[in-house]
Design brief:
Layout (H helix, E strand, L loop, with lengths): L12 H4 L7 H5 L24 H12 L2 H8 L20 H13 L18 E6 L15 E8 L2 H4 L10 H26 L4 E5 L8 H7 L4 E2 L5 E2 L7 E8 L13 H6 L3 H5 L10 E3 L2 E3 L4 H10 L5 H5 L7 H20 L6
Antiparallel strand pairs: 1-2, 2-6, 3-6, 4-5, 7-8
Helix pairs in contact: 4-7
The protein binds iron/sulfur cluster (2 copies).
């Protein structure tokens, strides 16, 4: 029996009353064979007029009723709150050079920042670059900048493993909040620095949703593969990290996707599906907005997510998230893929 299973778990009547007529499944495009852009659903800064607005407000209210959550965002250092305009004196360098500088900046620690720049430094564990694709832009938004720099901030797994959180024990979710804050510092300072070089830069800092769906962008820039739990699996850190990004017109060289066998692993693993209290994780892939992929049932997940101040069980229990395990699994699955490929290669006649 799994540690977290409470099947059948049923949401409260109070929560059910907040649901709109449209289901999260329809809203997210379940069983739609035509490709379309995604719709923003979580976490919106302004929820007025959104079909799930009342529900989202209730989730925010529940979080803000616990002092620890209010404190972690209200008093945390999230980098410069107000960014300067882009400098009129644009500096010129090759895309290769800008790419190296941006990555060094994102991965640097306090005190290790680009020479001569007075910023507060940075602190991401992952950084990747992708050209923005129109299908990542949420409905209702227009994109104007061509490139995206994505950063990943790794969570402390021991602390994360204290989920599900409660008002008395918020530690697991506080780790999530702390990593969002770290990501915010990285992208706000990075955007600050890019503007100082004379280019446009717009930060996207969690937990708030911006104009772009960062998940497919993170896959495109090599952060990993989509897991059955609807989150990324990275070959180094599993699912134990949070995303943030900077949209920019700085010339940059995109990274390649990194497929190392996580998708195959998920096909034979049910750990997250078995541990998810409201049975929100689908065991088979589903057609979503024109693509067959792993999917999570928003309608089942979100009531439990709300009750536990952000849940997070599925990413904590994923075997890839256990510290030190992901690189070994990635190596094993990459070797298997190579062997499979060699076995199916046609023999060359002597
Ligand atoms: S727990 Fe298993 S099935 Fe779920 S995402 Fe992780 S590897 Fe995939
Ligand atoms: S976050 Fe949602 S999908 Fe993941 S375990 Fe919790 S309820 Fe299930």
């Amino acid at each position: 029996m799994s540690r977290n299973k409470q099947s059948p778990w049923t949401p409260s009547a109070e929560h059910t009353a907040l649901l709109p007529e449209i289901s999260g499944r329809s809203f997210n495009g379940w069983n739609e064979s035509e490709a379309r852009r995604p719709r923003q659903i979580f976490w919106l800064r302004k929820s007025e007029g959104h079909p799930f607005g009342r529900l989202l407000d209730a989730v925010k209210l529940r979080f803000s009723s616990v002092q620890a959550y209010t404190d972690v965002y209200a008093h945390a250092d999230r980098g410069p709150g107000k960014l300067p305009d882009s400098s009129p004196n644009r500096r010129h360098a090759s895309a290769d050079s800008w790419t190296r500088q941006v990555k060094d900046f994102a991965l640097s620690r306090l005190g290790a920042r680009p020479p001569g720049y007075p910023g507060a430094g940075s602190e991401a564990e992952l950084v990747g670059i992708s050209a923005i694709r129109p299908e990542w832009v949420y409905e209702g938004f227009e994109r104007c900048l061509p490139n995206l720099i994505i950063v990943g901030n790794v969570m402390d797994h021991a602390r994360l493993s204290r989920v599900p959180s409660s008002a008395d024990d918020p530690e697991g979710q506080l780790e999530v909040c702390d990593q969002y804050n770290r990501g915010a510092r990285v992208v706000n300072w990075l955007a600050h620095w890019i503007r100082a070089q004379g280019y446009a830069a717009t930060p996207h800092a969690g937990p708030w949703v911006g104009s772009l769906n960062l998940l497919p962008a993170a896959i495109a820039c090599g952060f990993g593969e989509l897991g059955k739990h609807g989150s990324l699996i990275n070959r180094q850190y599993g699912s134990s990290f949070r995303l943030a990004a900077v949209e920019t017109d700085l010339p940059l060289i995109p990274d390649a996707p990194d497929a190392f066998g996580a998708d195959d692993f998920c096909a034979g693993c049910q750990v997250c599906a078995n541990e998810c209290p409201p049975d929100a994780i689908l065991r088979e892939k589903l057609m979503v907005r024109g693509t067959v992929k792993w999917a999570v049932d928003f309608d089942r997940c979100i009531p439990y997510f709300n009750e536990t101040y952000g849940c997070g069980i599925c990413i904590a229990v994923c075997p890839w998230s256990t510290p030190g395990r992901a690189p070994k699994l990635a190596e094993r699955f990459a070797r298997r893929a190579r062997e499979k490929q060699a076995a199916s290669a046609p023999e060359v006649a002597a």
